[in-house]
Amino acid sequence: MEGVSGSVHGFDLLLEKAADKRLVWIKDWNRTVGVNMVIKVDKAVADVGLRNPVIVATKFSDHAKAYANRRGVTLISKRELYDAVWKRGM
After folding, report:
1. How do residues 16-56 score in pLDDT, each as one tens digit?
2. How far apart are the C-alpha atoms of 84 and 33, rounded to whole Å?
3. Strand order from edge to edge, sheet including 20-33
4. Which of 10, 27, 44, 45 has the fewest CB atoms in 10 Å of its CB?
């Protein structure tokens, strides 16, 4: 998606429910996602005119969690996603 800055940002998924849209970014790393990556995604989402992104990763640093909590970024671990899907019987 192209932002107002002219930069092109890549996201993995766009969730839409009624008039609400949320961008999802999946980071398939075997290491912790730090605050710098959460800030990068938050800024990219703001640049394309949306807010409250979702980030899926293996794990997140404490600083990343604190920033996400302040800014409305949803962090979901792969384990949480896996458990949610399998508990619903999918």
Report:
1. 998 889 999 999 888 999 999 999 999 999 999 999 999 99
2. 21
3. 13-17, 20-33, 54-60, 74-77
4. 10
CA atoms of 49 and 2, how far apart (whole Å)? 10
How many Å apart are CA 54 and CA 76, to the nearest integer? 7
How many CA atoms does the CB half-sphere of 24 hold within 13 Å?
12
3-state helix, strand, coil in the chain (%, to 5): 35, 35, 30
Region 51-64 average pLDDT: 96
Return the pLDDT at 30: 86
Domains, the chain: 13-87 (3.40.1350.10)
Q: Give the single-character DSSP code of 6.
A: S
Place of tokens 């962090």: 75
If you count them, how many residues does the chain have? 90
DSSP conformation class of 74: E
